[in-house]
Automatic annotation (TrEMBL):
Annotated keywords: Phosphopantetheine, Phosphoprotein
Protein name, UniProt field: Thioester reductase (TE) domain-containing protein
Domain Thioester reductase (TE) residues, every copy: 112-284
Superkingdom classification of source: Eukaryota
N-terminal signal peptide: none
Lineage of source species: Eukaryota, Fungi, Dikarya, Ascomycota, Pezizomycotina
Species assigned in the record: Penicillium atrosanguineum
Presence of keyword Phosphoprotein: yes
Any Pfam family hit: NAD_binding_4
Membrane-crossing residue ranges in chain numbering: none
InterPro entries: FAR_NAD-bd, NAD(P)-bd_dom_sf
Keyword Phosphoprotein: yes
């Protein structure tokens, strides 16, 4: 069914909207008569209904100015049947939708020549959001290559083919690597070059290296003229209001696993930069709504560094939420996790991350120490006129909402 925008525009332009009763729509001959009697000029229907009508009564759309199908993959056979009949519509469109933002986001006019192909096109988008990636803190770079590198290559090919399209992509703060420890970096500006940070990637996780590589690909495309915005969130937690969040990400496993053993590792000068998922989504949506924001990168972190919780302060948040945990030396924490009574602890699958020494006596988890300040000047400036999009610092109340959500869904217990 059309969304509010489609309905409003149609009504304001003087059109009449006719809803076809289901008992009529499922009978192709009755449907044909209804179209003629009501003199429908534009018909928007599901692909399944179009296909069923095409088989029994391919001339049903005779005299209709525009016919738009949506919801499923178009059938070349059904479309050819209608276009080759003596009662074809003036124009037949295949659309892509419904989507999260509108009833359909792309549209393509289907000709008889197009209908001879194995697949019917859906038109060219004007904007692309690439938000997906493989995230595994134990797998090497090679295991992330297909999803994060080849995947980015394929999406960039779509973005740069045909007419010019704006490209919005989520990278990660991990693209900087452990530059605080390895390079002595104290501050990262949003559009600083990434190249020097490659020196620290061998001491970080494979995911971080894949994000460095994929973001470099995007930056080069941007330098060559692709209108691009890069969003670089940190550790995304749950929704600040409902607590809904990913139960299997590192943040969730670290919180639940540490609460279960009543201990948290002592990690000096190391921050995780927590940010709620609703802040990330709202900030990205607002920034992307203005093409003037293209051509820049945006670090979605705490706008005020004073609101950024480091790992030492995380203990206070957990205790404040009502879960007593003690801060103990890092390797004592790892050993406690390995005690037989904690064999089902959710952190156990992450032992390669927690145990493998890569920089002297420091593990991959520990190389994030001396965390630099991630500047967010571009993001702050773009959100200046939207005070309703506010950053929510990690707090005991927030943690409790996450824990309640996981417990209610039967995902984690503490």
């Amino acid at each position: 069914m059309p969304g509010r925008r489609e309905l409003t525009v149609s009504l304001l332009s003087g059109s009449t909207i006719v809803v076809v009763p289901s008992q009529i729509a499922i009978d192709p001959l009755t449907f044909r008569d209804f179209i003629g009697e009501r003199q429908l000029s534009v018909i928007f229907l599901t692909t399944s209904l179009f296909n069923a009508t095409a088989v029994t009564c391919p001339t049903a759309f005779q005299g209709v100015r525009e016919v738009l199908t949506t919801g499923e993959v178009a059938s070349p056979l059904a479309i050819r049947t209608v276009l080759e009949s003596g009662g074809r519509p003036e124009r037949l469109w295949n659309t892509y939708g419904p989507t999260e933002t509108t009833t359909f986001s792309t549209i393509q006019l289907v000709t008889l020549e197009e209908a001879q192909r194995e697949k019917i096109g859906i038109g060219q988008p004007s904007v692309i959001f690439h938000l997906g990636a493989k995230v595994n803190f134990c797998d090497p770079y090679e295991a992330h290559f297909d999803a994060n590198i080849l995947g980015m290559k394929n999406v960039l090919q779509i973005a740069t083919s045909g007419r010019l399209k704006s490209f919005h992509v989520t990278s990660s703060i991990d693209a900087w690597g452990p530059n605080g420890l390895i390079l002595g970096t104290r501050k990262c500006l949003e559009d600083d070059t990434l190249e020097p940070n490659s020196k620290g990637l061998p001491y970080d996780i494979g995911y971080a290296a894949s994000k460095w590589t994929s973001e470099q690909m995007v930056r080069r495309a941007r330098d060559r003229g692709l209108p691009t915005a890069i969003y670089r969130p940190v550790f995304i937690t749950g929704d600040s209001n409902t607590g809904a969040g990913n139960p299997d990400d590192f943040f969730a496993l670290l919180m639940v696993g540490s609460i279960q053993i009543r201990a948290f590792p002592c990690l000096h000068k190391q921050r995780m930069e927590y940010v709620t998922v609703d802040y990330v989504c709202n900030a990205m949506r607002h920034i992307a709504s203005d093409n003037a924001n293209l051509g820049q990168s945006y670090s979605l972190v705490a706008p005020d560094p004073a609101d950024s919780i480091n790992l030492e302060d995380t203990v206070d948040v957990i205790n404040g939420a009502g879960y007593p945990v003690e801060k103990i030396p890092y390797w004592d924490w790892v050993k406690r996790l390995q005690e037989p009574k904690y064999q089902d602890n959710p952190l156990m699958p992450l032992m390669p991350l927690l145990q493998e020494k890569v920089w002297g006596d420091l593990t991959r988890f520990e190389t994030s120490r001396d965390t630099p300040h991630y500047d967010s000047g571009n993001a702050v400036a773009s959100l200046a006129n939207s005070p309703e999009i506010g950053y929510s610092p990690f707090s005991p109340d927030q943690l409790n909402r996450f824990l309640v959500f996981w417990r209610t869904k039967g995902l984690h217990s503490v």
